[in-house]
């Protein structure tokens, strides 16, 4: 499960660019790989609804585990143990049946004040995360990029919804081009990774923005 061989790609850096431009209110993700963090999204802007591998906690006493020692045990095929009580230590990811992190409750504050919701690569089937698509005010545009329409955006669309269906990377590329950010994003990726990574991936995340209309992006170019 540990995503040791994965690195942020161009989509992660698009989200980073939104952050750098002061457009990102919060990024909600179901991913547990920590690639949003690796791309430079600060903790204050990030809600990892299913947790991440960035930290680990003792299942007995609740103490945080030093990560260097934790991964040394994991990579050595040993069960990580708490240095205080010897309880089993597990990464802070949410397993089936466990409660979501308290930080997920930020959606109660964030979504009523967001003026645009960008949803990328999700089936909108896993609750309670899927219901976030309904959380913004009815006047707020929702931009959904995915292989196919899903959730209420398919069966109960709003008048200001925008659907871009197909490959996620292609959809992001179109949006970036409309915004006039193509070279800026390319420079960011090259600066951070040394090469432009354009692999096709499927992300499961949602982004709330605190600036309207992504700098004047025309909705008419999207598949509605």
Automatic annotation (TrEMBL):
Entry binding sites for Zn(2+): 58, 61, 82, 85
One Pfam assignment: SIR2
One GO cellular component term noted in the UniProt record for this chain: nucleus
Domain Deacetylase sirtuin-type, residue spans: 1-182
Key word Amino-acid biosynthesis present: no
Positions of the catalytic residues: 50
Gene3D superfamilies: TPP-binding domain
Matching InterPro entries: DHS-like_NAD/FAD-binding_dom, NAD-dep_sirtuin_deacylases, Sirtuin, Ssirtuin_cat_dom
Transmembrane segments: none
Gene Ontology MF, one: NAD+ binding
Keywords, in A-Z order: Metal-binding, NAD, Transferase, Zinc
Protein name, UniProt field: NAD-dependent deacetylase sirtuin-3, mitochondrial
Organism of provenance: Myotis brandtii
């Amino acid at each position: 499960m540990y995503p040791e061989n994965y690195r942020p790609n161009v989509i992660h850096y698009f989200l980073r660019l939104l952050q750098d431009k002061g457009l990102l209110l919060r990024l909600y993700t179901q991913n547990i790989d920590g690639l949003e963090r690796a791309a430079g999204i600060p903790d204050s802007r990030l809600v990892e609804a299913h947790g991440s591998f960035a930290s680990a906690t003792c299942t007995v006493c609740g103490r945080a585990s030093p990560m260097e020692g934790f991964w040394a045990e994991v990579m050595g095929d040993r069960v990580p143990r708490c240095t205080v009580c010897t309880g089993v230590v597990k990464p802070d990811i949410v397993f089936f049946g466990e409660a979501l992190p308290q930080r997920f409750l930020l959606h109660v504050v964030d979504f009523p004040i967001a003026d645009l919701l960008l949803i990328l690569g999700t089936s909108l089937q896993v609750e309670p995360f899927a219901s976030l698509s309904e959380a913004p005010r009815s006047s707020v545009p929702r931009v959904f990029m995915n292989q196919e329409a899903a959730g209420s955006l398919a069966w109960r669309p709003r008048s200001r919804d925008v659907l871009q269906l197909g490959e996620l990377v292609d959809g992001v590329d179109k949006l970036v081009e409309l915004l006039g950010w193509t070279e800026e994003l390319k420079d960011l990726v090259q600066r951070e990774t040394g090469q432009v990574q354009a692999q096709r991936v499927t992300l499961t995340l949602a982004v709330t923005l605190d600036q309207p209309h992504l700098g004047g992006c025309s909705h008419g170019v999207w598949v509605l």
